[in-house]
Amino acid sequence: YHARYLEFFERGRSDFLRLAGVHHTELADGKHGERIIWVVRRMEIDFRGSARMDDVLTIETRTEDISGARIFMAQQLKRGGEVLVEARVEAAIIGENGRPRRFPKEWIATFMPKTNR
Fold first, then answer.
1. What is the pTM of this model?
2. In the prediction, which pLDDT does 108 show?
3. What is the pLDDT of residues 11-65, one digit of tens each?
4. Whole-angstrom Cα distance, residue 71 to residue 65?
5. By C-alpha distance, which of 1, 86, 95 is closest to 46?
6. What is the CATH number of domain 2-116?
7. Where are the domains of the chain?
8. Core-most of 40, 47, 73, 106, by most CB within 10 Å?
9. Is the CA virtual torsion 56, 63, 18, 30 positive or negative?
10. Which SS3 state, helix, strand or coil, does residue 85 take?
């Protein structure tokens, strides 16, 4: 069942990007220039509790840092106010050649909380 939490966190990151105006399919299709793909490089997960069938769960996602081609994100899976699972994710963007690509400056402004700049 632990793999389900990975899926929940993936959906949370996808929604985070979508709400910021960045869509995976548009990037992969090259609609904004170069074809770009997001990849997870590393993930660290702390299990504090477990969700149950029919629980209403919330995923909170925030950016901690952006460096070169990498983005560091923190995520929490919650039931009500209770944190069940926490994750730290290091992701990167790569071009269609498979090599890392620096984050566009306009994305940094979009993804980084104002308190972190």
1. 0.87
2. 84
3. 999 999 999 888 888 888 887 778 889 999 999 999 999 999 999 999 999 999 9
4. 6
5. 86
6. 3.10.129.10
7. 2-116
8. 73
9. negative
10. strand
